[in-house]
Design goal:
mainly alpha; transmembrane; single chain
């Protein structure tokens, strides 16, 4: 039984060795081209995604909505601060 496993593993190793001897350089070049191509593809897709995000962020309709919301929040904050100021001012006048 041990000889059979050993023989099968040797046959498998020789088959792998034969494939590598026959197609080794082609496999190496293919792996290198795949690596380089994949890196370029990732760089290209990342650039496209970045451009889409910038275009969406600078969309005039979106910018107008953000300006309105910013103005609304600032107005609310200003009113809250004004209310706090008048309360403090009223407390300060009562002490005198």
């Amino acid at each position: 039984m041990h000889e059979k496993v050993s023989t099968i593993s040797m046959m498998l190793w020789r088959s792998v060795q034969n494939v590598l001897e026959t197609y080794g350089w082609k496999l190496l070049v293919a792996a290198f081209l795949f690596y380089v191509g994949y890196r370029r593809y990732r760089k290209f897709t990342e650039h496209r995604r970045h451009q889409r995000i910038l275009a969406g962020a600078n969309d005039p309709e979106r910018v107008a909505i953000l300006k309105r919301e910013t103005a609304r929040v600032r107005d609310k904050q200003q009113q809250e601060m004004q209310a706090k100021f008048t309360k403090r001012k009223a407390k300060g006048q009562k002490r005198m």
